[in-house]
Amino acid sequence: MPIVSPNLADLDFASIERMLRARIPVVAPDWTDHNDSDPGIAMIQLFAWLSEQVGYRLNQVPEKSYIEFLKLVGVRLRPAAAARTSMAFLLTKPEQANGVLVPAGTRITAKGPANPPPIFETDSPLDVLPAQLAAIVTARDGLLDINGTGETGPTAAGIDPALYVAERFSVAWDGKTPKLKTMPTQPVPLFFKPGEQTHKTLYLALAFNQSRSAGFKGARATLGLQIDSDEEPEVDDQVRCGESRLEIVNAFEAGPLIVEYAYYRPPAPGIAAGSWDPLSVIADTTDGWTRSGSVRLDVPISIGPVPAAEWRQVEPDMPHPLVGALKTPVDDTPAEVPVSGWIRIRFGVAPRVSVRALGFNMTTASNLTTIRGERLGRGNGRTGQVFSLGNANVAAGTLALTTRDEGRNDAITAWREVEDFDSAGPDETVFVLDAEAGVVLFGDGVRGRPPQADEIVIAAAYRHGGGLAGDVDTGAVSQPAGLPATLAGAVNVTPARGGRDAEKLEAAKARAPHAFRARGRAVTQADFVDAALAAPGVRVARAMVVPLHRPFPQGHVEAGLDAPGIDFTAETPGALTVIVVPEQDGPYPMPTTGELTAVAAHLDTLRLLTTEVHVTTPQYVRLFDFEVVVRAAPGYTTTALREAIGAALERRFHVLTGGRDGAGSGFGELLHHADLVAEIFRVPGVERVEAVSCLFDGQTPDHAERFLAWRRERQVALRLTNCPKNAADFDSIDLAGDEVPFVDASSLTVTVVDAP
To answer: Coil, strand or helix: which one is 664?
Structure first.
């Protein structure tokens, strides 16, 4: 039986007035005028109104007590979270530029419907190198030279030179289309053009200032890589908590990648011929160009372009294909794509990727505003001092608090933020920050030293802001302010994600019981669900835990099919899989690899050491090609019913809004034909459902290469009907534990029949 709070004042205005009126004949029998115009009745009504107000306030005592208890145990409202993105800074003329410094806090405004538009700031200073990508070329082997010598050339081998050239070289990006600023929204595919033999060598044509004093040659540079698929949902992604890298099921090809980096060293005095020499790579976080990251390398002083004489012809009147494609200067022809040097990358297995950004000048930016040198007030030496910042929603770890002691020659003391004062000594300069309210609390002299009377409290620097409005798409953050003339602009190469509005009181009250139950650990299924929903930097709308089961391992094949789903054939003690559904529009929300990684990182801090936790995507079963026959109520047209029935089915069988309670369709449920009939019958204007049937499979509405559900029975379309007639007909769908339905109503047909 639920605990019901007592109503401390259950009398309202009407009941109090009625009771007082009933007492008039007893205490004042001569009072016979009981109309509202009577002064006595007016006094009774005033008293009843005041009594109701007192009763209302009395009933707020339990609510206030609950809130005070939450404050007593340290529950605070969560501040707004800031969206974060990766930024690429573009050079005006890299071959003429010099290195510049873009300071931390450089502002870039986003385009979008929000008013005012969200403003992003760079999180750290960026040392801009005078170098930029000029072109991308792929080749079947490691040679830019296509001639060969002696008997190795195409003519000697009896091969048509034109065909030989066509299959050996591919200009993936010519430096012009798309432009660098629009490349994040128009990714450039590498290595996998239709009908082309897979290339395994990548050439990066660079444009840079060749003067050593400019800052590129001889520098240690970071080549940033942003792959399109890292920010696109993949049905076969999974991440295991506690591992240093991702377990991505069904990668383009199994096996270790071997990547070799080299650069072109042109001829020099004393060196007759150019050569490809090894390039010193310090670190590579891209795992062989299979995911976004960076390559840290030492730029050789001798890196340079391929001289005109090295671009030999295949046959007379047939120049090297790259000369025409890149307009490389040959025989005094002006260069359209300036190439100052080449980097060669050889792969053991060519990664099938599309590139959103590739360059040296990339950093991160957040939807925050930096405040510096804000004076908060003067200390008084008393216990429990409280100071308010000028702004709320302070970003974690950004408040640098100091005091200036006027009595000691303006001596500066730095203070340290702590969660609480429990372990603080009497002389420790620590403070507690309520980030949501922007309030700073100091100790009582026993646990934590309070500011003294001569000390002025100063917020040396902090960052504040955030909110859902900061979540914008790729390419939207593109209006920088105050950039040096060397820079042409900036653009975000990933969607800005992670924004969240400040927590409301009701949400904090609902969160408190779980916080007390979990106490910073995840043990039960409910703990993991709540923890996944609260993962920082990710908007998770729904999470479900499958205990004792884990996803199939990488490269697993089940019944001849790639198997990216959860293995329900065997139980694994101590293992569990968390299915994550992001807060997205559309019929089948799918998390990205980055979102899965963020959730896994959060769960890894809460799980027990012996718990094996996996985070994966849902598997979707599509319901489509509906054929509905109904009898309509008077006044309802076929068009109106078709729209209403389609909307009702999409809503009822949606992972976020479906189900009987509107909390989302159930994973692993038995979906019966009668469920469709019942939902259609609830649509206004439907008097009777004569017939319903539909097809179901694991395909996407646009028939993408990747299926949304991997199991064999999802590879072909089957029919859901009330009267199965053959092996392809079923009256119910037995969903696996990681499967959930969605409705594709684009091909819905509704037939209206007359009453008999």
So the answer is: coil
What are the two backbone dihedrals, phi and then psi, of residue 96, each rounded to the nearest 5 degrees? -120, 0
CA–CA distances in Å: residue 490 to residues 91, 100, 164, 179:
9, 14, 40, 13
- Residue 295 β-bridge partners: 223, 284
**Cα–Cα distance, 401 to 83 (Å, whole number):** 24
Cα–Cα nearest to 229, from 362, 357, 354: 354
Q: Distance between CA 740 and CA 670 in Å, rounded?
A: 10
pTM of the model: 0.78
Q: Where are the domains of the chain?
A: 13-59, 130-360, 380-459, 520-616, 619-753
In the DSSP assignment, the letter for residue 352 is -
Residue 666, token pair as written in the block: 């159930």
The per-type count for the chain, helices as H runs and strands as E runs, is 10, 41
Asked whether 510 and 469 are in contact (CB, 8 A), the reply is no
Rounded alpha-carbon distances, angstroms, from residue 240 to 70, 236, 450, 578, 607: 35, 13, 45, 10, 12
Structure tokens at 199: 């290339």
Give the pLDDT confidence of 313-336 residue by residue, as tens digits.
Answer: 555 555 555 655 554 444 444 455
Pick from 602, 541, 466: nearest CA to 81: 466
Q: Give 520-616's CATH code, choosing from 3.30.160, 3.90.79, 3.30.1560, 3.30.70.
A: 3.30.70
Residues 551 and 249 sit within 8 Å (Cβ to Cβ): yes
CA 231/CA 187 separation, integer angstroms: 12
What is each CA distance from 731 to 554, 624, 723, in whole angstroms?
A: 35, 15, 7
Q: Which two tokens stand for residue 458?
A: 């100063």
Residue bearing tokens 């995840």: 522
Query: Tell me: the pLDDT tens digits for 209-266?
Result: 999 999 999 999 999 999 887 665 555 556 666 654 434 333 333 344 579 999 999 9
Rounded Cα gap, residues 619 and 735, in angstroms: 10
Residue 741's Cβ-count burial label (10 Å; 0-12, 13-18, 19+) is: buried
Rg (CA), the chain: 34
Give the DSSP H or E segment for 509.
helix 505-518
In sequence order, which residues have a C-beta less than 8 Å from that of residue 424 and are 6 or more positions away?
418, 430, 443, 447, 448
End-to-end CA distance of the chain: 51
Q: How many CA atoms lie within 13 A of 148 on its CB side?
A: 15
